[in-house]
Amino acid sequence: MALSAFVGHPVREEGNADPYSVRMVQEFDKVGVVGLGTMGAGIAEVFARAGFNVIGVEIDQAAVDRGRAHMDRSLSRAVGKGKLTEDERAGIESRMTFTTSREELADADFVVEAVPEHMDIKKDVFGDLDRICPPGTILATNTSSLSVTEIAALTSRPDKVVGLHFFNPAPVMKLVEVITTVSTSAQTVDLVSEVAKRVGKTPVAVGDRAGFVANALLVPYINDAIRLYERRIATREEIDSAVQKAAGLPMGPLTLADMVGLDVCLAVMDVLWEEYRDQRYSASPLLRRMVAAGRLGRKSGQGFYAGTDEAPEPIPTGRYAQMIREEETLDLGEILLAPQIDDAMRMIGDGYATAEDVDTAMRFGCGYPKGPTELLAERGAESVVTTLVAMGEYDLTSIAVPAPLLMDQLPDAEEPHGGCACQS
Ligand SMILES: NC(=O)c1ccc[n+]([C@@H]2O[C@H](COP(=O)([O-])OP(=O)(O)OC[C@H]3O[C@@H](n4cnc5c(N)ncnc54)[C@H](O)[C@@H]3O)[C@@H](O)[C@H]2O)c1
Q1: The whole model's pTM is what?
Q2: Buried (b) or exposed (e) across 150-187, using 16+ Cβ within 10 A?
Q3: Do 226 and 275 fall within a single domain?
Q4: Does 117 sit in the ligand 1 pocket, CB within 6 Å?
Q5: How does DSSP classify residue 138?
Q6: CATH code of the domain containing 373
Q7: Domains in the chain: how many in total?
């Protein structure tokens, strides 16, 4: 539904079916942010910068002070870099208030929750928000991995509950994923997307599934790279530079793993595994062991590169050695890109996100110069399918059958495939 189709102020006249209609974005005054940690402080800043009055809620005064200090540092950095004037900073600060009482959200038009990633804490917060906020208030969670559907079902307004997944650091990263459940109304999705644009972000609408778009495409690809490294098929440098060269990425997957944190990568893989129970989402044993050993990447000082000058030399043996001998044209970069393109085609084919939104998510959330469907167009479906099939022969991919939508792109595909037609 187009935004213009609904964002009139609700007219409380007789016959108006929904007395609890949301207000139009232009009328939003107060935005609540619950939890002012790494993400919440940044989210509060984003809204205050865009001109909204923001009320930040924390558990106690010490946490308020930490959140405030976080915002202060961020605003000082922006002023230091010339991205904000002192006057603008003063304006932002004047629009921010802080409290330890959720009751003060009684007149909030829109609330974003950014408390720790535990369902019990989220449930407690949402139960309260539903009781305290007016029935028209839209409630959003910044969860990375929990079920938005489950959170929405706790409230009396599941049609007005969404996921609003900001990326870290929130003031800098352009992407926000707007996660909808089976209960979210089209009005709410349009309104939240409009809010996201108002605060200078690029929203993409996705269904409520593990990993949403960006994490579901990025982390299995990092996991694939770890598997190649674990099997000693190539050095870390060869793996990283091959993908950088193939897709023009700012950094390779093992460098990225060190930066994101190996614990975060493992947590995402485990969430994907929990949801799909598909071998594609089983974490590499090496990833699991490195996390168990406390080698979490940059944050712990030890990872694939961090704290490790020397890495094991590749020893291509068995089927991999055979592959390298026989498939001289099978490029390491393509080996890592083809499954990711396939994952993206599966996502689009399932109607979970549009091709445009998938490309936008990877460009703005992961710094890809080109999204997966653009990478596919560049290579052609035949080349991607050939790579996947060859990888299957040499036991290099967990993808048993390429996505039906990918097969449909083959030049000789006569009509859209359904189910397992592509197995032939
Ligand atoms: N850190 C990231 O990179 C990142 C990125 C995207 C999404 N997220 C998601 O954002 C959410 C917050 O993550 P974070 O990294 O900012 O966590 P964090 O631990 O840095 O911050 C959480 C804040 O919530 C506060 N809090 C705890 N219980 C509360 C309560 N009952 N009421 C109000 N405040 C409470 C804590 O005091 C803390 O300041 C999580 O759902 C996480 O999955 C995190």
Answers
A1: 0.86
A2: ebbebbebbbbbbbbbbbeebbebebbbbbbbebbbeb
A3: yes
A4: yes
A5: E
A6: 1.10.1040.50
A7: 2
